[in-house]
């Protein structure tokens, strides 16, 4: 049974390879056009606080770009993160995203000097109930800025160097993979400013590190923790010597992921996020429903025949 299945797949694989060879020629010329479009389409990513580039096919690099202010998160940043990640979610030339910070540090967290932010939180209303009703609308908007990372079905790799403070932890907790440099340090800083972190750290960080006691210790004290501690608790999966090495590692990983079936990779992200927040049986049910459709993808046959023929599958845009 297994032998005949392998034989049928091999035959199908040969047919598929023949088809792929012819269509690869067309694809190569299409890719040339696509590359021309993708470098110019970056102009579609037009932001004040974020720089978006295409370092490799299907890989987008989003760089927080306020180096002189240590990439502090001002009102523009909070708005642009949603716009940027919603756009990346729809962009068929994007399969993986790398998120890094320009300049001396990854991010100093919330911009403590931006009047627009404070006005949106501390309103001109004098009545406390009216203020509260307004805040009930504005706080979720800040939360949406990082939930957009999680809702983007493309994997997001955070590349952290030096300081990652306050909102920085909220942000990278919504990412899929976290790398950092040896000199990186992290701080759940909010209590020092009289705040309970409210844009994702308290919800996502404990699920990543799986250590409730340590989460509470770091949250209640705002103690800085090092790259080594971040790795030992599973907050980052790799420490690199310096930023250059880290960006190379992130790009290598992104290119590898981008070469896989986007149907499979994006389906995996959606199911991982869903399963994190549901029971095992709910997750399995969701996965089964998802694959009722997705197993019918041409990518399954392409990937299987490439495996059998020891070739590299090329997947269509999604
Ligand atoms: C509803 C919203 C929910 C979100 C909540 C989020 C909360 C948080 O993020 S709490 C954390 C707030 N952040 C901080 O407390 C960090 C403050 N900054 C620092 O500790 C240091 O700047 C840092 C260690 C990051 C870097 O030190 P370095 O010596 O390299 O730089 P500085 O000389 O201190 O700063 C250079 C210029 O950047 C400006 N800047 C730094 N951080 C912020 C910030 N958080 N907000 C606004 N501006 C910041 C700093 O003022 C300097 O500017 P200039 O004087 O114009 O040169």
UniProtKB/TrEMBL annotation:
GO MF term list: delta(3,5)-delta(2,4)-dienoyl-CoA isomerase activity
Subcellular location: Peroxisome
Catalytic activity: (3E,5Z,8Z,11Z,14Z)-eicosapentaenoyl-CoA = (2E,4E,8Z,11Z,14Z)-eicosapentaenoyl-CoA; (3E,5Z)-octadienoyl-CoA = (2E,4E)-octadienoyl-CoA
Gene Ontology CC: one annotated term: mitochondrion
Main location: other
This protein's pathway: Lipid metabolism; fatty acid beta-oxidation
InterPro entries: ClpP/crotonase-like_dom_sf, Ech1-like, Enoyl-CoA_hydra/iso, Enoyl-CoA_hydra_C
Keyword entries, A-Z: Acetylation, Fatty acid metabolism, Isomerase, Lipid metabolism, Peroxisome
Pfam families membership: ECH_1
Family, similarity comment: Belongs to the enoyl-CoA hydratase/isomerase family.
NCBIfam families found in the cross-reference section: PRK06142.1
Primary role: Isomerization of 3-trans,5-cis-dienoyl-CoA to 2-trans,4-trans-dienoyl-CoA.
Name of this protein: Delta(3,5)-Delta(2,4)-dienoyl-CoA isomerase, mitochondrial
Organism: Elysia marginata
């Amino acid at each position: 049974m297994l032998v005949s299945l392998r034989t049928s797949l091999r035959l199908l694989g040969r047919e598929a390879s023949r088809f792929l060879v012819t269509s690869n020629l067309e694809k190569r010329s299409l890719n040339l056009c696509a590359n021309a479009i993708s470098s110019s389409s970056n102009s579609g990513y037009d932001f004040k606080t974020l720089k978006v580039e295409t370092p490799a096919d299907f890989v987008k690099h989003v760089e927080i770009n306020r180096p002189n202010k240590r990439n502090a998160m001002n009102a523009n940043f909070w708005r642009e993160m949603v716009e940027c990640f919603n756009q990346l979610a729809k962009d068929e030339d994007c399969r993986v995203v790398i998120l890094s910070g320009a300049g001396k540090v990854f991010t100093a967290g919330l911009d403590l000097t931006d009047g627009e932010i404070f006005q949106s939180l501390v309103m001109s209303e004098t009545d406390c109930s009216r203020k509260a009703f307004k805040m009930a609308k504005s706080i979720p908007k800040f939360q949406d800025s990082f939930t957009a990372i999680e809702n983007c079905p493309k994997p997001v790799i955070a590349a952290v160097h030096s300081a990652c403070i306050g909102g920085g932890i909220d942000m990278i907790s919504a990412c899929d993979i976290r790398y950092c440099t040896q000199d990186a340090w992290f701080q759940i800083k909010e209590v020092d400013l009289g705040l309970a972190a409210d844009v994702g750290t308290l919800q996502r960080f404990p699920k990543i590190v799986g250590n409730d006691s340590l989460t509470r210790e770091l949250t209640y004290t705002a103690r800085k923790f090092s790259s080594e501690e971040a790795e030992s608790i599973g907050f980052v999966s790799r420490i690199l010597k310096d930023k250059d090495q880290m960006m190379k590692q992130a790009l290598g990983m992104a290119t590898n992921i981008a070469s896989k079936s986007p149907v499979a990779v994006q389906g995996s992200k959606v199911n991982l996020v869903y399963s994190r927040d549901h029971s095992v049986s709910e997750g399995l049910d969701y996965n089964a429903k998802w694959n009722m459709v997705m197993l019918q993808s041409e990518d399954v046959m392409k990937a299987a025949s490439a495996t059998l023929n020891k070739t590299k599958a090329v997947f269509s845009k999604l």
